[in-house]
Amino acid sequence: MPTLPNKTASPLADRERYIPRGLAHYHPVVVESASGATLRGVDGREYLDFAGGIGVLNAGHCHPKVVKAVQEQAAKLIHSAVQVAPPRVYVEVCRKLVEAAPGAFAKKAVLLNTGAEAVETAVKLARAFTRRPGIVSFEGSFHGRTYMAMRLNGKHKPLRTRVGPFPGDVYHVPFPNPYRPPAGVAAKDLTRYCMGRLEDLLTTTTAPEEVAAVIIEPVQGEGGFIVPPKDFLPALRAFCDRHGILLIIDEVQAGFGRTGTLFACEQAGVAGDLLLAAKSIAAGLPLSAIVGRADVMDSLEPGGLGGTYTGNPLACAAALAVFGLVETEDLLGKAKRVGEAIKRSFDKLAKASPIVGESRGLGAMRAIELVTDKRTKAPLPEADMKRILELCREKGLLVIKAGGHGNVLRCLVPLTVGDAHLARGLKIIADVVLGLKRS
Question: What is the reported pTM?
Fold first, then answer.
């Protein structure tokens, strides 16, 4: 074994030395501490955080009520393993989820560690309940980095590169993208076209009795903050009901208040048979959940669900604190107000800048798609997107991108952000985009 040096020049040098390159990062900043909507690097510099831990920090960094709840829980119980004896807070979080999730039917919930784990478990439940193998996903979707989740993702690179083979019986169909519809398809016909492709799938590639579930993000996250037409989710719900197929709604990024309702699917008046939550459910602690129809949730034998760390008491305590913030600090109202401010700024930027092709989103889940030409919609090159992120960082703002072409600047600022911080961050984005000198 090679001898490691005792010391390196900086934490960034340590990151390069000790952490594999497959774990990418947007910004060369090593974080020391955080509060609200700001991060502080080890070099003492403070940054506005418009990435929000990739949608994890709707309640903000280190919210005092979350910190207090975790500290109190740590003094009482850190771990018991739910399979041995469930912590009280585990049961309480499940009760809260069942009461909060949309759908006029009996529900149950299970807690897990990550969004990808929730996706994997939802597939298990769907297959066990229906006794069918097939799962339908959407082009441009993102569901995680485990093997089934990678197979469900609607994009190949970089996640699936050189790591196959992957699980079978997964099918992809077009997601209705109003900004980039298929050639010859008018915006008003987008839902009809995509539903037609779904129906075609059941006659040309598989059959209804072979499909267990359709999984969908109500707003595509990594795919570029794409909001489908208002009639699409209801049409998809009707399609699933018609063919006896379960609907899995992946709200890992869109859920827990980001869009102005606790779950984005509520705005479409649609309930999934299984609803997945993670990210902001526990304000930064690892926790995910599935809440869904009781009969589907009960389809596995005892022992078929669980995991050593699933529903850890500290994460559950944080989740209960987040539920409290929704109830007592108007977190959903804040999402609407923050979202309106971002929308106004991004809409104005779309009119003023020749490279902003579209301003879009739902609630405070908002983005701008950057192009070289508004007519052709050719994506802004990677080098220019990288430069935009760099310039924002130099001005004290951390922001990240998304989209199939990597040309979407997305905003996931904590919903607790102050007005001054929000205005400052939006001004930085506008100044950088308007002043960009393309390479």
Answer: 0.95
Which residue has 């900086």 as its token pair?
A: 10
- Structure token pair of residue 400: 């990240």
* Location of structure tokens 């935009």: 388
* Residue 436 confidence (pLDDT) above 50: yes
In single-letter form, the type of residue at position 35 comes to: S
Helix (H) or strand (E) holding 96: helix 88-100
3-state secondary structure of 299: coil
* Candidate from 154-158, 206-210, 392-396 with smallest mean pLDDT: 154-158
Antiparallel, parallel or unpaired: β 408-411 and 400-402: antiparallel
11-62+330-435 CATH pick, 3.40.50.1980, 3.40.350.10, 1.20.200.10, 3.90.1150.10: 3.90.1150.10
- For domain 77-328, give the CATH number: 3.40.640.10
Whether pLDDT at 1 is above 70: no
pLDDT band for position 7 (cuts 50, 70, 90): low
> Which residue in 419, 424, 412, 430 sits closest to 361, CA to CA?
412
Q: Is 114 helix (H, G, I), strand (E, B) or coil?
A: coil
Token pair for 352? 């003023």
